[in-house]
Amino acid sequence: MAGYVPVLLITANVGSIFEEPGVMLNVWTEEFLATIARLDPKFIALHCQEVGGKNYEQSMRHVEYFVRLLMSSEELRLFDKVRVFLDEDFSSAEHFTALGNFYFIHESLKDVLLWDFKESSFSPVSGKDVHSGNIEAVTTKEKAKFPQDFFPECKWSRKGFLRTRWSINGTVFDLINIHLFHDASNFVAMETFPSVYSKTRRRALEHTLDRFHNDQYPNVPYFLFGDFNFRTDTAGVIKKLTEDTQESKLPSKNNFSKLQFHNKDDHLILTLGKKEFSHFEHQDVFMKNSGQWLREYDRELEDFEGRLLEYPINFLPSYPFEENIDEGSNYMQTRVPAWCDRVLLSPTAKTLAPDASASDAVEYGIIGPTTCMGDHKPVYLRIVLLSEADGSRVENHVAEKLRSRPASITSPQEICNSNGTATITRYIHIKHADSPVKIFRETTV
Fold it and tell me: Whole-model pTM?
């Protein structure tokens, strides 16, 4: 398709596949590569969380094997440009995020640039570079952990973001890997909505978006994909599943250990513990119609309406799946299934791709629905990006969608690149949600 670049964006929490690396790394990689072969992208961005696993001191050594599996595969043979960023230095608690960003660029893409956050300029991408271990000094990425006071119970956690900036055929955008806080207890999660965990996630995400909006670099469209740990409204789901039941508490030394819900015939319907959520028809209930009945309880993104967009979800909740290799299509009975793993877009990023209604090239789904991929199924978005040759269409998208809002074009700003060329940046400012949204485009002269 002339003027378009097929792009595949994938987020994958890979922590549990490192718990049994002898089996899981190969199974996971086979499903991942089969998806690459089927969707035939020319630019692949894979954002991983929990690289090295939960016991990273012991299993971080398997990460190198994982990287080799990907880079030596037949499916990626024609991707001659590779950039990998692996935050592996677990000895540095104040910096360690266990995030890993993998980028594979097809040989057919010639005009590919990567932003240097120190030099504030783009440089051409060629060859294959893997940055691993302690990557604090690598300037072609930006990485940060959330402030310590964001962490529940005031202890360090591996939560933060890892950002890169790209120019592909003249189209400029950010790709951001993010990992937000999880739910530690079902009892706490069910107390109210939003739960204390949801509020912590919202605070961290607002902090991140505000940081990008107000930082020293030009604002550009961005794709934000990672493990958001978004959860469904636990209290609402429990109420839905336990209509016409009686609640009872199982006693323990510390008040009670579990809640049980029985129907009028005294059949056990639901058991709830700190880390247990077990319905008597668990798989059937949450697999029914791809779990779409749960969508009304998937509400954490509501707070970011107008700031973050998402293509329609028509796939199963991505978490928590069984980690048993023989039960890859079943949910663990620990949490309410939820769409933890997402691919989100800024409003300006949406204008870089044709509308879903105008193209069959948009596909949003999960990888390995019947294969064990760990407790999280990878989630992917396959889109096509407009190239700079179709830049006028980008502006037409913006004008058509936002013509009712006041807009003005600022004077061009020139940034000198390391190769002696000049990049002219133009910003279209559009009033939205009490703050301007900047549409970023570049041309090189």
Answer: 0.86
